[in-house]
Amino acid sequence: GLNEPRRFKSFLEADLHYGGVQDLYDLYVAKIRMMLETGAADVELRDALCQINVVVDDARKTNPEVSMIGTMQQGLGYMVDVKYYPVRHCKISCLMMSKSLVDSKLMESDWPGVVDRIERHVSPADIDKVIDWGDTYVDELNILYQERYRLVDLMNSVGEGKTHSAPSGPSTPTGGSAEESSDQWVAPVPIPALEVLKMSLIGTIQKELMLNMKSSKDLFTNRLSPRTSALIIVHSHPYAADPLSMAHEFNKRRMSGKRTLGSK
Hints:
With 264 residues, this protein is an all-alpha fold. The chain contains ten helices and no strands. The radius of gyration is 23 Å and the shape is globular.
């Protein structure tokens, strides 16, 4: 369960562990490695990539709560790190980040070596594709977060029995000015309305999980060639690399000038 003291080096590693498919994932990586060494055709590599994607999807479906927490922690952590926008509503953000599935010290100690290996086998143009994918993912994630924060604001209003704006017109039904009543107390909204908002909020979490799964699959099966995707998976192993973490690290290296990664 989640109460185990174990800490992981990546969010995907946590999914594989709790989904009980780490050994199966390792076998597929070994298969893909052999296919690369024997010069397998792209169509064969694509089929193997689809199979390993099924393993990952099954792992996430087996323990959706682990996948949900990991996906949100990864997204929030990325947003904070790149200062994409200030993380609001600390009750939600802090709850998601308070018990991370991933040990940041382990990740920091191992990750540079993983990225170095990938960079030695993947072209700068393909690394640019990964970075562009990450930018697109974060843009979509930001839209989803704004929707989530709007729902949290509405829930706070419902819970407090407050309105956000003053009634229209020069005066309110109680005779006060609009300014005086901009934060007036009103009759609490019926509980069913609050439940609808809660369900909508849960819906945004499900959307984030689906966005993560869909986007990761898109990167490895559509944006990158089968051979490039296979090289990334093989040279990341035994580290199960998260696509977003990988894109973020590539982007940081480009910005710092540590390595010339293609031209934009």
